[in-house]
Every structure is written in C-alpha cells, then in structure tokens.
Write a structure and sequence with these properties.
Layout lengths: L5 E2 L8 H4 L53 H10 L5 H28 L6 H17 L6 H4 L17 H7 L2 H8 L7 H4 L1 H14 L9 H19 L2 H16 L11 H7 L6 H15 L5 E2 H17 L6 H4 L10 E3 L2 E3 L1 E2 L7 E3 L3 E3 L46 H10 L4 E2 L6
Parallel strand pairs: 2-5
Antiparallel strand pairs: 1-8, 3-4, 6-7
Helix pairs in contact: 2-3, 3-10, 3-11, 7-9, 9-10, 10-11, 12-13
Length: 432
C-alpha cells in the first residue's frame, strides 16, 4: 500500500552520542571494505545546539572587485545554504556547485551592463573570487567551497574565448534566436530536446571561430565561450529566471551521469555468479558493497537509475546472471546516502532544488523517495546505463505531492532522526 511520510530532521546533531546509544557509528560500517573505496561520509557532524545555525560575520573585502555583490544578496544567500559547511561535500554535484556556477555567471552578466564586458581580467578575477568566497563563508558556506567545486579565478576570465565585448558578441550571434530558445526553458523537456543547449552551442561556436590563434582542441575554446554565452544570457534575463535557466541546463548533465565510484566487485562475483548456491552469503556481499556506495554522495532519482544500471552491467561482466537487485531487495534509494540503518535513504528530485534556511529548523532540503522503487536490472543486451530521456522511466522529474506529518513519529524516532543528519527530509510518494 502506498503511503506518505515526512521526516523533520533538525540541525541539532550534537545530540548524537547521547541519543543514539543503541548503535555506535562503527556498527554502521560494512564488514568488507572494497579496495579503493572513497572515504566514508558519516553524517555525524553538526554545530552545537548552543551555536546559531548560521554564525554570520562581516568579512573584510579587497575593495578591488567591480562585481556588485550587494545587488545579488538573495542569490548569494541561496548559494551559502546550498553549500553549507557540513553538507557541501555531499550536495556538491547536485546542488552546491551548480548554484555556485550560476551565481558567478549572473554576477558577471549583471556587471557587463556597466562594463560592456563579459569577463574579468586576471587580476580582478582573483580579487572577486576571493571576496565572494569570504562572503559565502561568512554566511555559513564551506571554507573548502572553491576546492570542492573546482572553481579558480580563471573561471571568471575569458580563458581562451576571443570575444567578451557585449557589442561584438551581439554582432556575431543571433541574439534574438538565443533569447527565444533560452528565455523560458522547460526543465524536463529541455534535457531531451536540447533547444536552449543547441542555441548556446551554436553561439559559442560562432564566437570561438573568431580566434586568431588556433587550438589543437577547439572544443576547449568552445567550452570557454559557452561560459561567456551563459553570462550574456544572464545579463538579458531577470536574475531569478537566469538562475532557473542555468540550473536547469546544469541538471541536464547532472542527471545523465552516475557520480558514484564503483570499487572492484570480485567478492560479489565470487558469491553470486552462476546459480547462487548461497543466497544469504550473496546478499550479504551485496549489502556490504552497497553500504559503501551509500557513503559517497546524495544523488537524484535519475542518477540512481544510472547508478543501478552501471552496477548491474559491471556485475554481468563478472558472469552474474541473476537479478541481484530483486533477489537482495535493492531499491533506487539504496544508492544514495542513508541517514542511519533504521531510517530511509534520500534521493533528490531530478529537477533543480535549493536548500532552505529556517530560524527554527535550520538548513533543509527536499528528498524525493517515491516509495521503494526496485532498482532495475539491466537487460543482457544493454551497453550503457539507462537514459534519463527513456520514455519508459517512471520516475518523474517533479513529484506529484508532498506533505509534512511530523506527528506520525513517536518521541524515540524523532530523537534518533534529530541526532543523525542536518536536513529536513520530505518523502514525496509516488505517482501513478
């Protein structure tokens, strides 16, 4: 029977040791550690209840950056929440870094209205990136943010793109066509139809070809020019619309790829190949392996679909012929970070979403679990992970309903949930 639940998980994880006496965190670790597996993420770090959720400070800025940070206060605030100190590493791929990239593009786009340029020079870019980092950290973002998202000062420059002057840009590209394609992007259809993406690529290619110096790999220059096109678009759209468009385009790429690292699966192959003589041993090997995947990252529902397909194909190459996902009851949410062994995992919606700050509950975001959708076992003819544009995929980009019913939980469950992870989980259940 389908049902709806909601978890309210408050930023009070300092209660962990006193409230989780039933199970030490070492007990959550699998007994078998696959070689080269990533360092596990144990969500047991959070501020003391006596410390404000966001300990705001006033950073000392360089005074040498031309970007108007104060005019983009709301955008910067959202970025700080998406990249909050504890959650940034596990939200990097799906929420934090896409928001940071969009913020940089919009800041530069807004600046171009005054400067007429869609990029900063090398010196200014260093000051501006440093200033932005200080502002974000002062609002609670991770001080490792630029490292986590691989952002460098050069990302604010033209890099190898030859055109940054707004007037020259608009004389080379079909500006009206670009705006029509990208002004109102359907975040679901765009990922498959790629109308805006193709218009951006066309514009980026045109301005890249104006370079006087050839590159061995012109795709690098086109990619740099793509960033310039994003800034121009941001200058022509309302900041909220620009953010929606840029985040939507990023999520098209995010949802196409499973971000998890799969260490070797030899012990699963040894236990599960052919007829599976020992189903208990086989499923134990599967559970131990999957428990390591669960410590890597929060993933979207479509990423989980790709991850299941990727893992299934790897197992088939080890002569595992049986549907282990079905035999061992592996569902899509098993590929994402788990709050604890007694509580469910979290799949983020495939549409772009943001973390939210509330004075009473702290940082929160939405999880789309769609109940327990079994992980699909790939057919023997499959050559690649499932496509997010596959019309047979029944995981919607936008959940049909959401409700919050904290009264469903007794005190013991609430205490456990409060102690484990700094987030609000809304389990959004299923669509027909």
């Amino acid at each position: 029977m389908e049902f709806e639940l909601a978890f309210i998980v408050i930023l009070q994880a300092a209660f962990l040791l006193s409230l989780c006496s039933a199970e030490k965190h070492e007990d959550l670790l699998p007994k078998i550690s696959p070689d080269a597996s990533p360092q596990p993420f144990l969500p047991f770090i959070a501020p003391s209840p006596m410390v404000p959720f966001i300990n705001r400070t006033t950073p000392k800025l360089s005074g040498l950056c031309s970007l108007n940070f104060s005019a983009s206060e709301s955008l910067i605030e959202t970025t700080s929440y998406n990249c909050w100190l504890v959650l940034a590493p596990v939200l990097a791929d799906v929420m934090c870094c896409p928001q940071l990239d969009a913020t940089l593009a919009i800041l530069l786009g807004e600046s171009s209205k005054e400067s007429g340029l869609l990029a900063l020079n090398g010196t200014q870019s260093k000051h501006c990136l440093s200033d932005l980092e200080k502002i974000l950290v002062a609002r609670g973002a991770s001080n490792e943010l630029m490292k986590i998202c691989s952002v460098r000062a050069s990302n604010l420059t033209a890099s190898s793109c030859p055109i940054i002057d707004v007037n020259e840009f608009e004389s080379l590209v079909d500006a009206s066509k670009l705006l029509v394609a990208c002004e109102k992007v359907d975040p679901v259809k765009e990922c498959c139809e790629q109308n805006c993406q193709n218009a951006i690529l066309d514009a980026a290619t045109k301005i890249a070809l104006k370079a006087s110096e050839p590159l061995t790999d012109n795709s690098e220059r086109i990619n740099d020019c793509r960033s310039v096109v994003h800034r121009w678009l941001a200058s022509k759209l309302d900041p909220s619309r620009a953010k929606e468009t840029l985040r939507g385009l990023t999520n098209c790429n995010v949802n196409r790829v499973c971000p998890l690292v799969f260490p070797h699966m030899r012990h699963i192959g040894n236990s599960c190949r052919d007829g599976i003589s020992n189903q208990t041993g086989c499923c134990l090997a599967m559970e131990n392996y999957v428990s390591h995947l669960q410590k890597q990252s929060l993933v979207t529902n479509l990423q989980a679909l790709d991850c299941a397909s990727t893992m299934g194909l790897k197992l088939q190459k080890l002569n595992v012929t049986k549907n282990l996902f079905s035999i061992c009851h592996i569902s899509l949410k098993d590929f994402s970070i788990q709050v604890a062994s007694q509580v469910s995992g979290c799949l983020l919606p495939s549409l772009p979403s943001d973390a939210i700050f509330d004075n009473s509950t702290g940082i929160s975001f939405t999880c789309d679990l769609n109940d327990n959708i079994p992980a699909p076992w790939p057919s023997s003819s499959s050559q690649s992970p499932a496509s997010s544009c596959n019309k047979t995929v029944r995981i919607p980009a936008l959940p049909a309903a959401a409700s919050s019913q904290p009264s469903l939980y007794n005190e013991a469950v609430n205490r456990l949930v409060i102690s484990v992870l700094s987030m609000v989980l809304l389990i959004l259940l299923p669509l027909s």
